[in-house]
Amino acid sequence: MSEISEKPSPQQIVKTYLDVALAQPHLKPANSEQLVANIKLGLQQHNAALIAHYYTSPEIQELAETSGGFVGDSLEMARFGKQNSASTLLVAGVKFMGETAKILSPEKRVYMPSLEATCSLDLGCPIDQFSDFCDAHPDRTVVVYANTSAAVKARADWVVTSSIALDVVDYLDSKGEKILWAPDKYLGSYVAEKTGADVLLWQGSCIVHEEFKARGIEDLKKLHPDAAVLVHPESPKPVVDLADVVGSTSQLIDATRSLPHAAFIVATDQGIFYKMQQACPGKQLFIAPTGGAGATCRSCANCPWMAMNELENLAALVARLGKAEVEQNEILVDSSLADKAMKPLGRMLDFASSRKV
Ligand code: 13P
Ligand code: SF4
User: Fold this and answer.
1) Cα separation of 336 and 339, whole Å?
2) Which of 1, 64, 134, 153 makes an SS bond possible with 50, Cβ 3.0 to 4.6 Å?
3) What SS3 state is found at 153?
4) Dmax over Cα atoms in the chain, in whole Å?
């Protein structure tokens, strides 16, 4: 058998990790108040800031907000980690977010409650295969989504997040550049359709957003005809086509604030409801259906890797700060890889600040 055929396909890699992640159910611990108090004290003692994504549990988001940390989308998390004066960053999210924080702030210690918390887009884009893909298309500008490994970022010309992808690709298209896009095929085709750019797609997907069903949303709209439909662009085209607003997590939260509608059907991870409820108190929020009649969903609008951020393992991490055992939670990025990845990441941050995104 040849060496290539022995390598698992990106789909097989994702499935192996997903089976492990889904075997770990999340329960709110009985002693959560004590854990929260311990975590807050530990953060203060170690000059550490907690940075959480909107998909983490309500208790983790609340803790980030009330401890002087931050809750945001992946672009905002990256910016906060770089600008904040804390010497230690605790990232409650998935691995690419921790790696991005480390690349942008090499002088800071970056830890995560679980280093197993990954992402199907990152898993589905292994560096060897991706590098071959890039080598086969040397005439294209390589644009990768932030949901990728440091090695994939290091191979790219640009990194983008969902809040800035359209602007960056539109800009590159205006300069006549052809794009190689990875890894999310749905976000990539949405960007290609909106900008008219020539985009060659890597075939990755998010296992959470891929499960939203257009038919289910149409049925829910019949029950709530006045509800606006809010969709994250990692969703399939038939779902995106039903949207009143397509955007990053922060852009969807802003939409609940700015739109006049009293109800919203939301096609993204349910963790976002914590912030949406704050943004539009009194309005109704419905999660977009993830299965048609008789279908079963694997993630049910809950990212299994985001769910690996729990109060218990966060408290255990905080208790290890300042001790040798904290190594098991540390995010490390090879320095030559980090230097290379910093270029396309820096380009994104500079572009974002020039456009005020
Ligand atoms: P945002 O950049 O919109 O926060 O998205 C990150 C993500 O992982 C969505 O699934
Ligand atoms: Fe990755 Fe999807 Fe989870 Fe976001 S929701 S971290 S894209 S698997």
Assistant:
1) 5
2) 64
3) helix
4) 61
Closest by Cα among 227, 229, 258, 256 to 241: 229
For residue 94, give the ligand 2 atom closest to its CA.
Answer: 6
Ligand nearest to the CA of 14: 2
Integer Cα distance of 336 and 108 in angstroms: 17
pLDDT digits (tens, 9 = 90+) for 329-347: 999 999 999 999 999 999 9
Residues paired with 230 in a beta bridge: 245, 266
Distance CA 131, CA 98 (A): 23
Q: Tokens 């019949």 label which residue?
A: 222
For residue 119, how far is its CA from the centre of ligand 2 (angstroms)?
5
User: How many angstroms does the Cα of residue 232 sit away from the middle of ligand 1?
Assistant: 8
Pocket of ligand 1 (CB under 6 A): 73-74, 147, 161-163, 206, 232, 234, 248-249
pLDDT 10s digits, 9-38: 887 888 777 676 666 656 677 789 999 999
Burial of 249 (0-12, 13-18, 19+ CB in 10 A): buried
Q: What is the pLDDT of residue 9?
A: 82
The answer to whether residues 238 and 214 touch, using CB atoms and an 8 Å cutoff, is yes
